[in-house]
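Lecture notes, part 5. Sequence design as translation. It can be helpful to think of inverse folding as translation between two languages: the language of shapes and the language of residues. The source text, in structure tokens, appears below.
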């Protein structure tokens, strides 16, 4: 078959990884010059910076004033585990899953917490489960945006305002790029290294007044390690939500997070961040629509993520291959782009269907995605030619 011509224009920034994600435009290590290095995080300067990070998080995300925002250990995983182990067990729980990370929370609750009253409401990659099945008299655990499937909930309308249970939401690839309906959410978690391209190892835990009430009125039957404890003497440990972290944070990472939050404000805050991610998704979507060989893994346009854009290869020469060969074909495309230095880390997640996953969050420039699209065509045709000549 005829090969596609190699494009002349390259992305200025080839970082399209879905986590850790691209640094903000114009970032250099100079942004970290004011970091409180060599100082205790409990010193005045450390506490002030951590408190400022919490304050700016609330401002940019438009978190209700009566919600608590805390910095916790171990990235989004740590934040979610703290919530699950500290809050669940008071009533039955509905676990929603439609991709890898949601499925991971299901496994933790069933096999590790060993709760008796658990309902699994699941869907295959590319689809949402039937949200009408969810019973909000129970606690409900779900991801807002499925990072490994590119499928998100379109809004919070499926969550009733008068719910009796808690709505516990892993929002790590949604926060700062999608409009979270905080009034419908009791627990929200995310990590710094997603939409704002921060550095890893730190998680954010946001609690509604209802979640705080649960913490202060319910004690789980199992012991909690120190790193998970959110209460002292039956009351919320308020220090966690004022910058007095449970363990030692990296003040270098804190400085980086402060820098990205300040940048977020400079581009219009939450509205500006969402607009940037939407424009990035649109650049990919336009290419997919005309490509003839790519399709969105997310079946319903209303549920397609504007951050972790997951794509399937639908060319007949590829779809007739067995799953292992399809995965090898996709990896071949990824490898070619990596070697050319035009796109790094855009392969499908290891548990997801074979294809591509391109990060389109707010720190990515639309012009870079527009430059990348012809390279996708080139790499596909190169890989297909190699397949047919084998």
């Amino acid at each position: 078959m005829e090969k596609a011509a190699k494009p002349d224009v390259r992305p200025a920034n080839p970082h399209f990884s879905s986590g850790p994600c691209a640094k903000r435009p114009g970032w250099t290590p100079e942004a970290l010059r004011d970091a409180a290095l060599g100082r205790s995080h409990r010193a005045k300067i450390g506490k002030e910076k951590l408190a400022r990070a919490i304050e700016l998080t609330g401002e940019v995300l438009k978190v209700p004033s009566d919600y608590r925002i805390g910095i916790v250990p171990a990235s989004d995983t740590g934040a979610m585990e703290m919530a699950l182990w500290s809050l669940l067990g008071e009533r039955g729980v509905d676990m929603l899953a439609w991709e890898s990370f949601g499925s991971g929370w299901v496994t933790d609750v069933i096999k590790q917490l060993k709760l008796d009253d658990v309902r699994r409401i699941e869907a295959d990659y590319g689809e949402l489960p039937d949200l009408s099945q969810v019973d909000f008299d129970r606690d409900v655990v779900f991801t807002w945006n499925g990072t490994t499937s590119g499928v998100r909930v379109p809004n919070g309308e499926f969550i009733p305002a008068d719910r009796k249970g808690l709505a516990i939401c892993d929002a790590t690839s949604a926060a700062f790029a999608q409009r979270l309906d905080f009034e419908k959410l009791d627990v929200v978690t995310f990590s710094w290294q997603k939409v704002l391209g921060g550095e890893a190892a730190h998680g954010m835990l946001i609690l509604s007044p209802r979640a705080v009430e649960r913490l202060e009125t319910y004690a789980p039957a199992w012991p909690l390690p120190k790193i998970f404890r959110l209460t002292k003497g039956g009351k919320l440990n308020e220090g966690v939500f004022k910058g007095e972290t449970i363990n030692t944070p990296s003040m270098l990472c804190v400085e980086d997070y402060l820098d990205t939050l300040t940048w977020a404000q400079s581009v219009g805050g939450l509205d500006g961040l969402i607009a940037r991610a939407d424009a990035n998704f649109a650049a990919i979507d336009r290419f997919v629509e005309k490509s003839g060989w790519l399709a969105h893994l997310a079946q319903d346009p209303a549920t397609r993520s504007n951050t972790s854009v997951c794509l399937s290869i639908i060319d007949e020469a590829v779809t007739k291959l067995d799953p292992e060969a399809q995965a090898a074909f996709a990896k071949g495309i990824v490898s070619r782009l990596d070697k050319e230095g035009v796109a790094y880390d855009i392969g499908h997640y290891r548990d997801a269907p074979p294809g591509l996953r391109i990060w389109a969050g707010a720190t990515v420039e639309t012009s870079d995605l527009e430059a990348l699209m012809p390279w996708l065509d080139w790499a596909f045709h190169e890989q297909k030619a190699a397949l047919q000549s084998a």
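The translated text above is only one of many valid answers, since several sequences can fold into similar shapes. The chain has two domains: 29-266, 269-389.
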